[in-house]
């Protein structure tokens, strides 16, 4: 049973996924709790002065899942609904993801329960710096490395780095990833997750022995990951993107949406609202429209028991973390011959892979070119994809069970070899 402090639908979902795979791997008793429960969970208050002179206090979190393979690594999100339980679930998924990709990390996640759109730029900086100040006793380049996530960006990472460096009395670039390149950020980091999704969609097409040329795609969530994915599918694979959405609206155009124009519009207006590239539809309807590739690239738990049977895609590329509930997964398992699933811990691993590259470069003070980054990224993605497909075929299990079992096995092996102390 999950601890009360992690009581949250998202952590419950992560636990359900783990338990199903633990059954396959014959993991029993207290070893399950040792593998799933986080090593450390931190909850802090974030007080700031607002520009109107008032004081506001926000809640901040950071969860570090395990340190068996190296320091923890994970994003920092600023979203109004963030909870400790959600942070714990995301940290757990990050652990399996890093292990699947062969990265020397445990998983972490955290952030602040705040809507960044409600803050002025000055207030956003104050929240960012105070959050890092509260985290300094618990993070470090060899302990826990932060990166961007929902509601945060390169600028927030720069504030994190500067705050930590001011405390250390020297520049510590490797404390965060996803920084501006002028501060030691990695070439291609911002585009890494979306590029990885596109690469894996191409690999899925190749595996299925069909061509993506002329196919159709729908991308739910037109943020950083979704927009890069949409542009890659349109201009790299020759697909037609017929649906996109953000937090405000969903647009559908069977003739195709000019995603580069949409991307520029969002950069200027911060939302798709007012963009005339398609017909406005119910966002829930977007997921069930016919398409060749469906990319949920927004939030958790959007593919559920109620709509999983209505999906009309050939490839489901999970760019978001935890977009499919266990109940929906059971339905997709029955539709395995119809829908090829690229599970989240594989599909969106590109971001943390290039974050790892950034961390390595900062430690060495030796930067790589964009070409080198892409080449190394694709090699790791190819290895992970091949391993997942091979195990799924050999054991007759779903791609998700295959990916999770590889990640869990590697973490389990590390914990067993290191042993319990004292």
Give an overview in words.
- It contains 14 helices and 12 strands.
- The protein has helices at residues 9-25, 30-36, 84-101, 121-135, 154-168, 192-208, 224-235, 259-269, 283-286, 326-334, 344-347, 350-364, 370-395, 399-418; strands at residues 40-49, 55-64, 72-79, 106-113, 144-148, 216-220, 240-245, 250-252, 279-281, 293-296, 315-317, 340-342.
- Helix 6 packs across helix 7 (224-235) and helix 13 packs across helix 14 (399-418).
- The longest helix is centred in the C-terminal third of the chain and has 26 residues, at 370-395.
- The chain is globular and about 55 Å long.
- The model has no long low-confidence stretch (mean pLDDT 94).
The major beta sheet can be summarized as:
7 strands, mixed
The N- to C-terminal Cα distance equals: 25 Å
**Uncertain runs:** none
Given this structure, which CATH class of the largest domain is correct? Alpha Beta
The percent range for helix content is 40-55%
Supply the CATH superfamily name of the largest domain: Leucine Dehydrogenase, chain A, domain 1
Determine the CATH topology of the largest domain: Rossmann fold
The sequence of SSEs as H and E is: HHEEEHEHEHHEHEEHEHEEHEHHHH
Strand share of the residues? Answer: 15-25%
CATH architecture of the largest domain: 3-Layer(aba) Sandwich
Main sheet: strand order: 9-8-7-6-10-11-12
Radius of gyration: 21 Å
What is the count of β-strands? 12
- The count of helical stretches stands at 14
Count the domains: 2
Coarse structural class: alpha/beta
